[in-house]
Amino acid sequence: MRRLEGKTAVITGGGTRGIGRATAARLVAEGAHVFITGRRRTELDEAADVIGDGVTAVPGDITDPADLDRLYGAVRERGRGLDVLFANAATASFGTIETITVEEIEQVFNVNVKGTMLTVQKAIPLLNEGASVILNASTAADNATVAFGAYSASKAAVRSFARTWANELKGRGIRVNAISPGPVDTSGITELVGAENAAAFKAGEGSRIALGRIGRPDEVAAAVAFLASGDSSFMLGANLYVDGGENQI
Fold first, then answer.
1. N or C end of the chain, less CB within 10 A?
2. Catalytic residue numbers?
3. What is the topology classification, in CATH, of domain 8-242?
């Protein structure tokens, strides 16, 4: 199926070996031309090489308005507007209320909240009528995971953004929805807990999921492709859980 034939998409955090890259590959397979952005040029170039035709890599930081202007300038030059925006880039940090630092709180909220807001705000002039905006929230927004308070709160803010922006942009036919993945097997887990702890962490997370395992990036990508396409035309302000039943049963 090529449900996005001729469409233009932007994915933030598209270079990492995880949800962003898997989604870029899926949207290209669906017929879209995908612009990916992220702070690590090497990973972006690798993603573009792996996915092949249909991808344009534009390095940048979503917390930097100038970088976002450069990204959307490249989209504007293509001359077809923007049909799909997946605000995926995020960061995480462990720390209880007693141990988390000001610097850690600022970093998490700067990327996950401010960065997401700027990503969507600066895209608005380019969004075509009927465009789909998808925000990457998290099951963490609903959970009370110890030492994950800042991340959880930032993702609750993202979920709230989806509702408000859906209401604000619906007059232009723009649909804003969120996805909430559960634990997913990405390189971000290794970065968060360390290579020596990654296997045990994944096993522990999988043991509390109803399906008995953590998710794969391509499973989240499939959900994003659904929200990006006309198959989800009657969904607005929704939050689609892709969590193996973690928050459902």
1. C
2. 151
3. Rossmann fold (3.40.50)
